[in-house]
Amino acid sequence: MSKTDQDEPACSIERSLQILGERWTLLILREIFRGRHRFADIRDSLGIAPNLLSARLKTLVAGGVLRTYTYQEPGSRQRRSYHLTPAGADLRVVLGALQQWGDEHRPRPSGPSALRRRRSTGEPVHVAFIDGEGREVTGEDVVIDLRP
User: Fold this and answer.
1) CB 42 within 8 A of CB 36
2) For residue 10, what pLDDT is reported?
3) Are 68 and 81 in contact (CB under 8 A)?
4) What confidence score (pLDDT) does residue 146 get?
5) Is the pTM of this model over 0.85?
6) CA atoms of 116 and 128, how far apart (whole Å)
7) DSSP code of residue 116
8) Which stretches does DSSP call E strand in 5-140?
């Protein structure tokens, strides 16, 4: 076993939460998925304190979820914009699952604030377990085997 293996939690959920586990993190990612890439736009949309946003963005960049690009508007200093890496893009399903759970178990009287739809057809979609043949599997039929 390497030193890295000894230092890291065995549970992949725990390792994921080291990067994603803060309250604001998934909301920041939601805004980036919505096309907000600039610090000020994310801050203004969420109403988050700048120091918290800065800390969360640094964690996401260090964790390989986001990458930065430098931009400069005329007459202003250089700034960074934040964009999803492939690992960050894979979190779309996590956000979709959280939204789906919230719509089902924490519904608003006025209905969902957003709908998940297929881009190509507009038809509604839902998050589910899919087997190797592409068939949906119920949650009750899924077992998570722990490995030593």
Assistant:
1) yes
2) 87
3) yes
4) 84
5) yes
6) 13
7) -
8) 66-71, 79-84, 129-130, 136-137
Burial class of residue 103 (count of CB atoms within 10 Å of its CB; 0-12, 13-18, 19+): middle
Name the CA dihedral angle for 131, 137, 139, 142, rounded to a multiple of 10 degrees: -40
C-alpha separations of 111 from 100, 117, 131 in Å: 12, 16, 31
Task: Render pLDDT for 67-95 as a digit per residue (tens, 0 to 9).
Answer: 999 999 899 999 999 999 999 999 999 99
**Tokens matching residue 60:** 């996401």
| pLDDT beneath 50: ranges in the chain | 1-2
Record the tokens describing residue 141, joined without a space.
């039929």
Predicted pLDDT of residue 1: 44
Give the three-state DSSP class for 94: helix
Taking the C-alpha atoms of residue 104 and residue 147, their distance in angstroms, rounded to an integer, is 32
